[in-house]
Amino acid sequence: MDLDFQNRLTSLRAVVGYLGEQGHFGWWPSSFFVAGSTGFLAPVFPRTHTLAQVAGVSRAAARSHDERIGVGNTYHLFRLPEEFEQAIHRRLHDAQANQTIKERLTNRESALAWLQELAQHDISADVGPIRIGDLHGVYAPDLWSVAAGHYLRGFTSRSETYPYFTDSTS
Which candidate among 8, 85, 109, 166 keeps its CA 20 to 30 Å from the CA of 78? Predict the structure, then answer.
């Protein structure tokens, strides 16, 4: 996985996690990116509070995804193969990557604007779990643009969507 793909996937996880929180669209019950969270996390994680925020929101989002999609032989934005998880973790230790994420998470509008840049736009208006590819599709950057499109449509239509990859047809 090249560095550009790592950066896009890391930003996608942070942006979708941020938008799905209670303070925005309320798809999962977390508040890691509210205004007061930085003040709470920064003393404990002075150099890695963005990492802590993304890790926290990822756990909440993973739980919501898993409850709707199920667990086993599936991947989604918040539960990826180990090599992806490690790459995202490394990117969140990078100062420039953190700065880019912070800029994308300035407010709801900036997060949605970045998601719109990444998203494939000819997405159907499906709701709930949406299978977007087989397990090999996790490695295809194009399919992550499809996933971004589903999240964008879900947020803008206020309908929860959960794109995922699996080998089964369910």
Answer: 109
Q: What is the pLDDT of residues 92-124, one digit of tens each?
A: 999 899 899 989 999 999 999 999 999 987 777
**Model pTM greater than 0.85?**
yes
Number of structural domains the chain divides into: 1
What is the span of the domain harbouring residue 42? 3-166
Say what the alpha-carbon torsion angle 30, 81, 74, 105 is, to the nearest 10 degrees: 30
Strand bridging mode 128-133 / 74-75: unpaired
